[in-house]
TrEMBL record:
InterPro entries: WecG_TagA_CpsF. It comes from Mesorhizobium erdmanii. This is Glycosyltransferase. One of its GO terms (molecular function) is hexosyltransferase activity. Keywords: Glycosyltransferase, Transferase.
Length: 259
């Protein structure tokens, strides 16, 4: 299922366009049920998450925006919630950020799955695999390769994925590389559900700390990440967040209304 079939399945009322990217408005439990059904039916579905940072990149990168149009997109973070509130009068039903949602989905999925891990460093990918295996003992987790490989190595890596043919393939290469890589190399011959997961493997490995729970509940995890990695993330948050909101404001103006 991609966003074209999602439009047919859910109708336009369940999709909210944020800077041209269609995002599925769905409850947490319903999203888990949806992904469970898609895997059970072996319906090839590329999955990604939209936050303010991804939306900014897609706004200025037509190739990335085109690739996302063939993904099932779930909402991630307070930025897209604010955008939905401005554009549609209400936020998304739930924050389905991949860092929390993907492990929760794996825990909730009772049918044993084979899950491939591709990306991050080898050490972090292996540590994430151990953590996931403890969280969801019913599944088989396989580290396919780290995220540092050349184009010459790609055929071998793609061959490994095809030989394993996992139910779910977690691709952690950063934005937009992970989505573009999935779009260019992965189809129903390789797995059922490739998921672009960003820094998930780094978080699971413990090498990158999560914000305290109270900050996550207040939707301030971005502020914690900025404090931990200011040199790498200041442009994403200090510059990127206001740019994103300005672009949403312009989208509101182009619609001729505010809600």
């Amino acid at each position: 299922m991609n966003m074209h079939t999602a439009r047919a399945a859910f109708g336009h009322d369940n999709l909210k366009a944020i800077l041209g990217i269609s995002v599925l408005a769905i409850r947490w439990d319903d999203a888990i049920a949806l992904l469970t059904r898609l895997i059970a039916e072996r319906r090839f579905t590329k999955v990604s998450f939209l936050n303010a940072h991804n939306a900014n990149i897609a706004y200025s990168d037509p190739d990335f925006a085109e690739a996302l149009d063939d993904f099932l997109i779930l909402p991630d973070g307070i930025g897209v919630d604010l955008a939905a509130k401005l554009l549609y009068g209400e936020p998304f039903p739930d924050n389905l950020n991949g860092t929390d949602f993907v492990p929760a989905f794996l825990q909730a999925s009772t049918k044993p799955l084979t899950v491939g891990l591709l990306g991050a460093t080898r050490i972090n990918a292996e540590a994430a695999s151990v953590k996931l295996a403890a969280l969801a003992v019913q599944h088989n987790f396989v580290v396919i390769h780290d995220g540092y490989f050349s184009s010459a190595q790609e055929p071998e890596i793609i061959g490994r994925i095809a030989a394993l043919r996992p139910d779910m393939l977690l691709v952690a290469m950063g934005v937009p590389r992970q989505e573009l890589w999935i779009a260019r190399h992965i189809d129903e011959r390789h797995c059922t559900m490739p998921v672009a997961v960003g820094a998930l493997l780094d978080f699971l490995s413990g090498s990158v700390p999560r914000a305290p729970l109270w900050m996550r509940r207040l939707r301030l995890e971005w502020l914690f990440r900025l404090a931990v990695e200011p040199g790498r993330l200041w442009r994403r948050y200090v510059v990127g967040n206001p740019v994103f909101l300005w672009r949403v404001f312009k989208q509101c103006l182009s619609r001729g209304e505010f809600r």
